[in-house]
Design brief:
The complex is a heterodimer. In chain A, 30% of the residues lie in helices and 22% in strands. Chain A is of the alpha/beta class. Chain B contains eleven helices and nine strands. In chain B, the strands form two sheets. A five-stranded parallel beta sheet of chain B has the order 7-6-5-8-9. Chain B has a four-stranded parallel beta sheet with strand order 2-1-3-4, sandwiched between helices. In chain B, β3 (112-117), α4 (122-129) and β4 form a beta-alpha-beta unit. Classes of the chains: A alpha/beta, B alpha/beta.
């Protein structure tokens, strides 16, 4: 199937292209940019006049809830949501039930995802068995099964000796370790930022030092072991500063932030809106502004959806008892565009945060439109405004703090491996 | 953002918190309560028919004898039918969700719910889900709010001090875990009290308590100086376990209200406590039973204030 996408504004952050160019797809790959290759006969022509043609988005944190939590979401529902959001590659944390700590589980997940033929799925393996923080998993076996890095997801790893050993072992084989910094003692029972809103509402808190103490420990151990460390979902200005300094000192550290934290603050909790019960907690305006600045200056490498669908019943509870999490795959692109517009970041730089940068974190040859690359492409209409209505979302998770928000930018086509897997009606 | 306790006409639909409660409504409640003091006193008139034919459900997910009883008395003096439900010991332990419990109670045609729950925000949650003609009164949600307690405290202060705009008020004790303190602070600042102080060790204060508009003191001798009213908070015994305090003895030594400390307050200062008291922990018996104490009148006024709130809500249907 040969596809010709014509008249679009092509944006490819990796190759620093931002201009109106046609793109030609043959044999599932990008055959040419600009001029058709000799003898190219298109079986489908997509007129992208007025539209933007970019690499399919790469989301480094999307929970698919399989295996074990199919009542919250299934691979089918969430992969459909992914391509509707222009996301063609995603990595999923290992906090399934059972956790992704055995090669068989990873192979099954990869196999199920492949059969659905929607987005590419790159599972993260559990760093420790059962995510219990005591014994190392078989990282080599898990890597051979398809794991791209190792993570504790949101499970605590309080034993610093185990953390040191896990990093040493991963470093031996060049594996990347992904960790979300949170001291479990300081965060115990907490559900909100230790700020003005929690003071008013009487909510148990997770102070910023819970993040920075854990982060400082991780950075020190990374320096000690030489492991490639990826820090997940930072939430505070102080954490941005710690990462900035670590990078300046030459440490092999990268980091991401969730789109929720780029746009929202503790104030959005309002009168106990359980949609804003997310992990890590939404923090102050100052923290949010520092995260936005860090994303702009490159301290933060990537922005992710932190897609965590939960079932409706689990949210129908008082704030602290409601399960944390929010849907996000379908909102990632418009929220990145919103940030870029508000912060006056050129599209070429903004879209790098959801394409080539996360692709490099996963060590995959995706997230760009080079000739010869897999034709994973997102075509969106920058002029199309829409309103977030939970019922209209394809994800099985309907809870989002952005309920009712006006969004700018709607995905028109998503191509995976040279095939149209989504087309808006 | 719409205030969830007011209806479209700006009248009281639910009483969930004193935060954001318009000062006119607070004054209205206090004025109305004054007319009930006689009824609640058990004077000549024992009952008034304002809630005749209405049913009030006391739904307590967290057990409480005292607060539930005062709501029950208030409702009965207004001639309402009262149903007491200790949900903590029935439905939820059988696995029923909070929402199912509320739906079931709505189906029994309650006109008013008086709700207590261990989670902050539970009353807001329930108010969001009840039918539009049902009223919810928050009788305490987690650490968040206990508005009728704060309103009866305001009534007591007004009874003894007449005005609010010239007062200095100190709240002493475990502000961090206290729904009473949060509701008192919002009520006092809304009524125009120029100086509200909190006195406690740092472990018992929320991190940003000053953002609520209070002055923070850690020393009783400084904090009590020249105050017109001392609002004591109850110290739960479990605070010794969470590494918040070393011992009840040490707490009493530095933060207990004794006669010597009370002497630093303004002459004629009043001492209040929401009960139940821990004598010898937060308050000395000689103060609790002394001439400055208005702790028992608080209880009497509490019934009048709850009658005022219920009758106001019933009138706003």
């Amino acid at each position: 199937m040969n596809i010709h996408i014509k008249n679009g504004r092509l944006i490819d952050p990796k190759n620093r292209i931002d201009s109106q160019q046609d793109i030609f797809i043959a044999d599932r790959r990008i055959a040419a940019i600009g001029k058709a290759p000799q003898g190219f006969a298109a079986s489908q022509v997509i007129d992208a006049g007025g539209l933007i043609v970019m690499p399919g988005l790469v989301d480094v944190a999307a929970r698919l809830r399989e295996p074990g939590y199919e009542y919250k979401a299934t691979l089918e529902s969430e992969m459909t949501a992914a391509v509707a959001g222009g996301v063609t590659s995603l990595s999923c944390p290992p906090d399934t039930d059972p956790p992704l700590d055995e090669p068989g589980l990873v192979e099954m997940l990869k196999h199920r995802a492949r059969l659905l033929n929607q987005a590419r799925v790159f599972p993260l393996g559990a760093l420790t068995y059962g995510l219990k923080g005591t014994e190392l998993t078989e990282m080599i076996e898990l890597t051979e099964a398809g794991c791209k890095a190792f993570s504790q997801a949101d499970a605590p790893l309080t034993d610093t000796r185990v953390l040191l050993r896990a990093m040493q072992y991963a470093a031996t084989f060049g594996y990347r370790v992904w960790l979300r910094p949170q001291d479990s003692f300081l965060a115990r029972n907490g559900v909100a930022h230790d700020g003005e809103v929690a003071t008013r509402l009487g909510l148990p808190t997770i102070p910023v030092v819970a993040e920075t103490i854990a982060l400082a420990t991780m950075l020190q151990l990374a320096g000690e072991t030489g492991v490639k460390l990826h820090i997940c979902r930072i939430s505070s200005a102080a954490a941005v500063e710690l990462i900035r300094n670590a990078k300046r000192e030459g440490l092999a550290v990268t980091c991401d932030v969730s789109m929720n934290h780029v746009h929202l603050t503790e104030m959005d909790i309002g009168f106990f809106d359980a949609n804003c019960h997310i992990v890590p907690p939404l923090r102050s305006l100052r923290d949010r502004d520092a995260l936005r600045a860090g994303l702009k200056d490159g301290t933060i490498d990537a922005v992710c959806s932190n897609h965590s669908p939960v079932d409706e019943d689990a949210k129908q509870l008082p704030f602290a008892e409601a399960e944390d999490g929010a849907t996000g795959l379908e909102l990632l692109l418009p929220l990145v565009l919103k940030w870029a517009e508000q912060e006056r970041v050129p599209l070429l730089d903004a879209l790098a945060r959801v394409t080539i940068n996360p692709a490099l974190l996963l060590g995959q040859k995706i997230g760009h439109l080079s000739v010869g690359a897999h034709a994973d492409i997102c075509v969106y209409d920058p002029g199309s405004a829409w309103k977030v209505e939970p019922a209209a979302l394809r994800s099985q998770g309907k809870n989002t703090p952005f309920n009712g928000y006006e969004m700018q930018g709607r995905v028109r086509y998503t191509l995976l491996d040279g095939q149209v897997v989504y087309q808006s009606t | 953002m719409k205030n969830p306790q007011l209806d479209n006409n700006g009248e009281l639909q639910h009483l969930l918190t004193t935060e954001g409660l318009p000062v006119e409504i607070i004054r209205d409640i206090l004025d109305r309560a004054a007319t009930f003091v006689d009824v609640s006193d058990g004077g000549d008139i024992k009952k008034t028919p304002l809630l005749h034919g209405k049913s009030v459900f006391n739904v307590f997910f967290e057990s409480s004898t005292r607060t539930r009883t005062t709501f029950e008395i208030a409702a009965k003096r207004l001639s309402a039918d009262v149903v007491n439900l200790n949900v903590g010991s029935s439905s939820t332990s059988k696995g029923e969700t909070l929402l199912d419990t509320v739906d079931n109670l709505c189906a029994m045609h309650a006109d008013m719910f008086v709700v207590r729950h261990a989670q902050s925000g539970a009353a807001h949650f329930i108010a969001r889900h009840v039918a539009p003609d049902v009223h919810v009164i928050n009788a305490g949600d987690g650490r968040h709010a206990h508005p009728t307690q704060a309103l009866l405290d305001m009534f007591t202060i007004r009874h003894y001090k007449k005005e609010f705009h010239n007062l200095r008020v100190a709240i002493v004790g475990d502000v961090l875990h206290s729904r009473v303190a949060r509701s008192q602070i919002h009520a006092l600042t809304t009524l125009g009290v120029p100086e509200v102080r909190v006195i406690a060790p740092k472990t018992l204060l929320p991190r940003h308590v000053e953002k609520l508009g209070v002055q923070v003191y850690h020393d009783m001798a400084l904090g009590l100086r020249d105050v017109d009213a001392v609002l004591m908070l109850r110290l739960q015994n479990e605070r010794m376990q969470g590494a918040l305090l070393p011992s009840a003895q040490e707490y009493f030594k530095y933060y207990g209200l004794t006669q010597e400390r009370l002497a630093l307050a303004k002459e004629g200062a009043i001492v209040m406590h929401p009960g139940p008291m821990n004598r010898g922990v937060e308050i000395d018996s000689s103060v609790a039973d002394g001439p400055h104490s208005v702790i028992l009148p608080q209880v009497t006024f509490g019934i009048a204030v709850r009658m005022a709130v219920m009758s106001m809500l019933a009138g706003n249907t």
